[in-house]
């Protein structure tokens, strides 16, 4: 009987170490063909835009794809970097305005969102469910539907006096507040769902060791919530960097315009009036920072830092 029991672990180990069966050659070829097809349809539009940005022919409309168009040059990028549209603003000024909105939205939506999410996740207080439902209702409301009330509300606020006074609606501050108000509900719910998965045992252990609520939050919870914070920060930056509707409705001064607004200004009533090479170059320059931010946060987005945190 003892000998029989001793052989059980060996049998289980042998079963676990048994190599997996490889796919048949036909299935491997089929899967590879499917993946190549997906990669092609994903990369084809990007290749088309890159090729169009290098085309100096000033064609009336894009109809074909040449990976290296005849006479390829970077003149379109030079024109866009100098002055994308007829407005007296450079690409650097437009990028700075978009960067302010992107970083501001990412910072404030994440900071306020994680604080509110922690309260909803860990504390039980009167009106908690009602407040969570209110946040959910705002999340379900399309952001474009809030333009009218935000326009009226922000238009009534004037900050400063004399020559330094400015209307909140007609400024990047007002646009930033409007974007943050739309990004906060998602940030709260996204972060709350993640904080719910962090074991409370870690907080209790910290309090037993004498840690305060702030120490538990900043030294235990936030480091473990880095993946969710990275996702929320990235999406907040994306919403601020690419935002168009509110900026187009609120801003009137060219010095406050963003990259998305200038990209729209490059289009005309008909396709023949669009400088396609400049438009493609501008589109790539607008998309590049988003790709850089994603690559910088990729290891946090795809990683799970809570694995193994509890023995």
What is the topology?
Elements: H1 2-16, H2 25-53, H3 75-82, H4 91-122, H5 128-140, H6 147-155, E1 158-159, E2 166-167, H7 172-195, H8 200-208, H9 213-224, H10 226-242, H11 245-250, H12 259-265, H13 276-301
Antiparallel strand pairs: 1-2
Helix pairs in contact: 2-13, 3-13, 4-7, 4-10, 5-7, 7-10, 8-9, 10-13
Task: Please give a handful of descriptors for the protein shown.
MetI-like fold, 2 domains, 311 residues, disordered N terminus, flat, mainly alpha
Task: Let me know the CATH homologous superfamily of the largest domain.
Answer: MetI-like
Briefly note the CATH topology name of the largest domain.
Answer: MetI-like fold
Overall geometric form? flat
**How does CATH name the architecture of the largest domain?**
Orthogonal Bundle
Integer-rounded radius of gyration: 27 Å
End-to-end span in angstroms?
Answer: 34 Å
Q: Tell me the number of helical segments per DSSP (H or I, 4 or more residues long).
A: 13
> Taking all residues together, what is the mean pLDDT?
84
Give the count of structural domains.
2
Strand content: under 5%
- Tally the beta strands: 2
Helix share, percent: 55-70%
Which parts are unreliable, with pLDDT below 50 for 5 consecutive residues or more? 1-9, 11-15, 304-311
Summarize the main sheet. Answer: 2 strands, antiparallel
The order of strands across the largest sheet is 1-2
Structural class estimated from helices and strands:
mainly alpha
The secondary-structure element order is HHHHHHEEHHHHHHH
